[in-house]
Design a protein that fits this description.
Elements (H helix, E strand, L loop, with lengths): L7 H12 L8 H9 L6 H24 L3 H20 L9 H19 L4 E9 L2 E9 L7 E7 L9 H11 L3 E5 L5 H5 L10 H12 L4 E11 L1 H12 L5 E5 L5 H8 L2 H8 L3 H14 L1 H14 L4 H8 L15 E6 L8 H9 L4 E6 L14 H15 L28
Helix pairs in contact: 3-4, 4-5, 6-16, 8-9, 11-12, 12-13, 13-14
């Protein structure tokens, strides 16, 4: 589905940004005006126009605060946070030495934090102990009562941020009575940009301390913790669930069983063979040529090298091959919803492979379609439809809607399988 731009990367990222309008992260008219000033494929203009739009929203927020109108200020600040994220997105020539990357990331975070202070929901900025340092996180609660509620633990994607998780799932969860704990793991958000921690495939080492933290908070119901991961985060969340039995349910948006298959979709067999055999003197020039002609591939390789600590495109390609659930998926024995996008540009077939690897006793496949506007990667542009599927399934399978205080929610265990719902299409 092409949206405004002919280039796949610009099209998808614009749809992603505008798709957050339903939760206050964008305004449709603003996005149309921003993008009309960006020539096709012009990354410098992309940075300039999204940054200018974010700065305008910060100024408007201040005017609203001066006029004693916090609700209007909050809306502007949420948009500013998302627009700063967009402005930073394609600056990947040398991100580890680009001060603008850090600056835009911080401005996105500051705008978001300011918006949360104006929210009616509970909110707390947290630090989670992790291997001698800490991981940044946010706890969103439905209210300030301290009442224990089912809680989503949100794992972000390869190129997402902690602040974006609010639009991806947290706002929808809060509306439905769920609390949320979101965090930046190694290779993500501020953990990458400011602490320089890189991705790791054994994500159970990351989520275990996150769950440890969650169960220390009485309002995050310890027997109703639900893992949620999107894009690469779906692999990461599933990997963690295979090793930590404390999750009651799992939502993968969209399912990734073997990232190797995603790599194989975009690289010819001879090139993969060179990479595997470490003929880097031949592989790297060909990969560089492909990067020079494809904005999306160039972003994935440059961001991947930065976030995974790879020094060359060939090194990164080999690193991607380690991200596989093939040998551990059968250990996942909790109700699992695996979302699929009919027109997924990156992960076609991976959701079905994930269901097969976990087994249909535990895993349910939900395919969202092009006709309903939800067929793009992670259903960008159709978040309400994705959330409808997610929370309808979650309420019926793992955690009933928390609207009735008297309702007892039972955690699924390996000895009490939950029947899978029919495939949703």
């Amino acid at each position: 589905m092409k949206f405004i731009f002919g280039d796949d990367a610009f099209s998808l990222e614009t749809l992603r940004a505008m798709g957050y309008a339903c939760y206050g992260g964008a305004d449709i008219g603003e996005v149309l005006m921003i993008t009309r000033k960006i020539p096709e494929g012009d990354e410098l203009a992309w940075h300039r126009e999204w940054k200018a739009a974010a700065e305008r929203q910060e100024q408007l927020a201040q005017r609203s605060l001066d006029a004693c109108n916090p609700a209007s200020a909050r809306h502007s600040l949420l948009r500013a946070s998302n627009y700063y994220r967009c402005a930073e997105y394609f600056r990947r020539d040398d991100p580890s030495n680009d001060s603008e990357v850090v600056s835009l990331s911080r401005r996105s975070r500051c705008a978001f934090l300011a918006a949360m202070t104006l929210s009616g929901n509970g909110f707390e900025q947290i630090e989670i102990p992790y291997e001698g340092t800490t991981l940044p996180g946010y706890v969103h609660t439905v209210d300030h009562s301290g009442r224990p509620r089912p809680t989503l633990i949100v794992t972000a994607s390869l190129g997402s941020t902690l602040e974006e998780s609010y639009f991806v799932i947290a706002a929808a969860a809060l509306e439905r009575g769920y609390n949320v704990l979101a965090y930046d793991g190694p290779g993500q958000g501020a953990t990458l940009r400011e602490n320089h921690l890189m991705f790791r495939p054994d994500w159970e080492a990351v989520v275990t301390p996150v769950i440890d933290y969650a169960i220390s908070r009485p309002e995050l119901s310890s027997h109703q913790l639900i893992g949620f991961g999107y894009s690469l985060g779906a692999y990461l969340a599933a990997r963690a669930a295979a090793f930590d039995p404390r999750l009651a349910a799992l939502i993968l948006n969209d399912g990734i069983c073997d990232f190797r298959a995603a790599v194989e979709r975009v690289l010819p067999p001879f090139l993969l063979d060179w990479v595997r055999r470490r003929h880097d003197e031949s592989a790297n020039p060909v990969l560089a040529l492909h990067m020079s002609t494809d904005i999306r591939f160039n972003w994935a390789m440059r961001h991947g090298m930065w976030s995974m600590g790879a020094s060359t495109p060939a090194d990164l390609t080999r690193a991607f091959l380690d991200y596989s659930l093939t040998e551990v998926a059968e250990r996942i024995r909790i109700p699992t919803l695996v979302l699929d996008a009919e027109n997924d540009q990156f992960l076609h077939g991976q959701a079905l492979s994930t269901v097969r690897a976990i087994g249909d006793t535990w895993a349910t496949l939900a395919t969202l379609t092009i006709d309903e506007g939800a067929g793009e990667h992670c259903h960008v542009g159709a978040m309400p439809r994705a959330h409808q599927v997610i929370f309808d399934w979650l309420g019926g399978v793992a955690a009933p809607p928390p609207t009735s205080p008297s309702t007892s929610v039972q955690s699924a265990t390996a000895d009490t399988p939950t029947s899978a719902l029919p495939e949703t299409t």
